[in-house]
Every structure is written in C-alpha cells, then in structure tokens.
Amino acid sequence: MIKHLRIVEDNRASSSIRFANYIIDLIVLIIINTILSFASILIYSYTSISFFYFYNNGGLLWEFFTGNLVSFIYYFLWEKYSNGRTVGKYVTNTRTISIDGNDVTTQQVLYRTLSRIVPFDALSFLGGGNGWHDSWSDTRVINVRNYLAEKQAKDDINSLGTKENL
User: Residue 164 gets which letter from DSSP?
Assistant: First the structure.
C-alpha cells in the first residue's frame, strides 16, 4: 500500500492549470495526427500500399482506434521518459508524481495512460477532485515550484539541530 503524503495533496495543480495541460496536449496530438495523415497520403501515393489509404479513409471506428493509439503512445512515452511530464505540463510547470511523493513508476504511467481511453476521463478533474486517471493510478499532478519550495522548507525544519559536517 502506498503512503499518501499531505504535501502532495496540498500542492496539486488547479483545475484551470489541468485544463490548460489538456488543451496544450490536445493541440500537440492534433499536430501529430495531421503529420501522420499527410505522411500516410504521401506513402500511399508512392507505394499504393492499401494500409496507408485506409489510415485516412477507415471510418469512424478506425479513427477512434488510431486516435487512441496515438494518444496512448504520446502520453506513455512523454510521462515515462520525461519524469512525469508532457508538453502541456512543461508549459505550465506541473508534473505527475506518485501520491507518496516519489517519481511515477512505469506501472503507474501505464494505468494513467490506459485510463485516458475511458470516455470523459479528460474532463473528470474539473469537478474539483482528482481526475479518474489520477485516482486509479495513485498519482497527482502537482505545481512543481510550490511543491519543491514546501519540500525544501520541511527538509530545513527537519534538519534543525543536526550537526553539520564541515
């Protein structure tokens, strides 16, 4: 069982910041999908491989599948290899961490990313609480500057009275 730290909850990013993260990441995903669509058109025109035609003309179910696949890859790779951050989180200076204050694990990133496939998950944090992908993965999105300042203050208080090594 993961220990739930109060400092993590106290420094959660606001709903408006979370919404900004969502919008920025959505714009990045639209750009990625546009690039993939143009690339598939070019590849199809040169190779006539039907998959690349189907990528742009596969219908609603195909668009849902490819959109979720690209989204899954985007969120998983960014949060796994950039220490709990996406492009939106870099812009807003927020980060995903575990509720125990540690970096997110691969399993937590996987749960967060899979949870995003659930309809309306993207807006589940607007009610003032944690989003579904936060609750289901035992993670929180925090304001990095506030979190680090409070953590440093607590560390300074805890080190009072200890002898310094010179």
Answer: P
Q: Are 75 and 86 in contact (CB under 8 A)?
A: yes
Using CB atoms within 10 A of its CB, is residue 123 exposed (0-12), middle (13-18) or buried (19+)? Answer: middle
Q: How far, in whole angstroms, is CA 70 from its chain's centroid? A: 14
Task: Give the pLDDT band (50/70/90) at residue 25.
Answer: very high
First and final C-alpha spacing in the chain: 39
CA 18/CA 118 separation, integer angstroms: 17
**pLDDT tens readout for residues 75-112:** 999 999 999 999 999 999 999 999 999 999 999 999 99
Give the C-alpha separation, 133 to 72, whole Å: 13
DSSP state of 140: E
- The continuous run of DSSP H or E covering 139 comes out as strand 139-143
